[in-house]
Amino acid sequence: MANLIGSNLFTSAIAGLNSNYLLLLNGSDGLTMDNILNPSDDTIRYTVNQTFRSYMMTNFNQIDMDGDGKIGTDDVNNYVTRLKTQGMTYQELSQLCASGAGGSMSSLLDTVLSNFTQIDTNHDGRITQSEINAYRVNEQIKDVKEKYPKINPTQMSMFYESKVDSPDSTSSKEDKVFG
After folding, report:
1. Pick from 58, 33, 36: which is nearest to 45 by CA?
2. With contact defined as beta carbons under 8 Å apart, do 164 and 173 qualify?
3. What are the backbone angles phi and psi of residue 173, rounded to the nearest 5°?
4. At what angle do helices 2-25 and 73-86 cross, to 10 degrees?
5. pLDDT at res. 177
6. Which string of b and e fits 77-109 if b means at least 16 CB within 10 Å?
7. Along the 179 residues of the chain, how does pLDDT read in single tens digits?
8. Cα 96–101–103 angle (5° rounding)?
9. Which position among 7, 56, 157, 164 has the lowest Cβ density within 10 Å, counted as fewest Cβ atoms?
């Protein structure tokens, strides 16, 4: 489960970005600053999260990578790829999750935001899925050490049991793994 923790949070954040972007796009060939400030109809205006609109206004130039004044699908795809590979800042993570994560990720988001500086192990101001996952594993190791102080979870090994059949049998050996 620990391998999916950061992935789930990033997936939720990116899903929020994509779904709100598509709502604002509403069939046009690109999203302009005017589309963000003044959505084309009331349904879109009230459906799109205000936090997301604020995020898009603040980061418009970063997302509009070709500088044509419109955020197209390619711009969003490139931006999403950058977020996945380079990680997200505190602000990006909180705003994007607020626009799409909903209640299912709120506890995880709170934990990540509360411990952002500890999770950001390379201190670049961005956290990646890997950093979130590593933090989660380290927290689980701490919990095991506190709960079972005489057991060192990093020093556990696997034991093998070999079953050798009688010489008359056609199968000679069967291994079972116990961990």
Report:
1. 36
2. yes
3. -155, 140
4. 160
5. 47
6. eebbeebbeebbbeebbbbbbbbbbeeebeebb
7. 444 566 678 888 888 888 888 888 877 888 889 888 888 777 777 778 788 888 888 889 999 988 999 999 899 999 999 998 999 999 888 888 776 544 456 777 888 899 999 999 999 999 998 899 899 889 888 888 888 887 766 666 656 666 665 555 554 445 554 44
8. 140
9. 157
Distance (Å) of CA 140 to CA 4, 70, 106, 128, 175: 14, 45, 20, 19, 30
> What pTM, to 2 d.p., does this model score?
0.69
The pLDDT, as a whole number, for residue 148 is: 84
With beta carbons less than 8 A apart as the criterion, state whether 29 and 70 touch: yes
- Cβ contact 63:75 at 8 Å: yes
- CA distances to 64, 71, 81, 168 from 30, rounded to whole Å, are 10, 5, 19, 75
Helices 2-25 and 129-147 meet at what angle, rounded to 10?
A: 140
Strand partners, 89: none
> How many whole angstroms separate alpha carbon 6 and alpha carbon 97?
12
Residue 24 · residue 63 · CB < 8 Å: no
Q: Are 92 and 99 in contact (CB under 8 A)?
A: no
